[in-house]
Here is the input.
Amino acid sequence: MAKKSYAVIGLGRFGTSVARRLHEAGQEVLGIDINEEKVEASDMYFTHAVIADSTEEKALNSVGIKNFDCVIVAIGNDIQSSILTVMLLKNLGVKNIIAKALGKRHGQVLESIGVEWIIYPERDMGERVANQLLSPNMLNYIELSKDYNIEEIILPSKMAGKNLRELNIRAKYNVSVIAIMRNGNVIVSPSPEELLQEGDILVTIGNRSDLALFASLK
Ligand code: ATP
Here is the structure.
């Protein structure tokens, strides 16, 4: 992956997680926080971290905010600061802005000022936990649209020892298997002759209700 530069504004739990992961993946990350302690505590994770108030245009200019490929606004509780920061970023011509929203109205304001991607960590995590409880065989998922998901589903035990041709999953359950994860390896576009094993994780694509039915099989 090509190296990109990211600025993370707000080094709370959310901002720190985003920044740490990007840094671990070899990306260039600048952390920004108004609170000195947060900046000092983050030192070991980032390429750089600076103390600055992101609601001040001068502060944003002095870190060269326009030159970053992507700016993540991870301020939540202080809604006013979050909105002011995003407006300044927009005015300064920052193209790619991601912002965390605490709730619906915060999100709506961010949307109206043109934030490309709004994240609702509590809401999204809550939904994830509920989905996991409803369907324990489903390990992870990506929402492709309102109706379609890609999901990692543990192979129903009764299917172990059979191949994909016999199981005919697409015709029977309206679900397509796009990969199999086995012992840390990924078998992409598995052949119809691929023999499935207990413990396999199927990476599947389909309609959400069809996937839910498939994930409920024993
Ligand atoms: P999290 O839920 O991610 O842990 P939090 O609830 O601790 O966040 P938030 O209010 O969302 O706190 O703020 C996240 C960080 O943003 C804090 O560390 C705070 O110091 C920082 N922050 C708030 N306002 C500004 C600002 N104007 N400029 C820079 N950083 C700011």
User: Anything to note?
Assistant: The mean pLDDT is 93. Residues 9-15, 32-35, 38, 53-55, 74-78, 81 surround adenosine-5'-triphosphate (CB under 6 Å). The chain is about 35% helix and 25% strand.
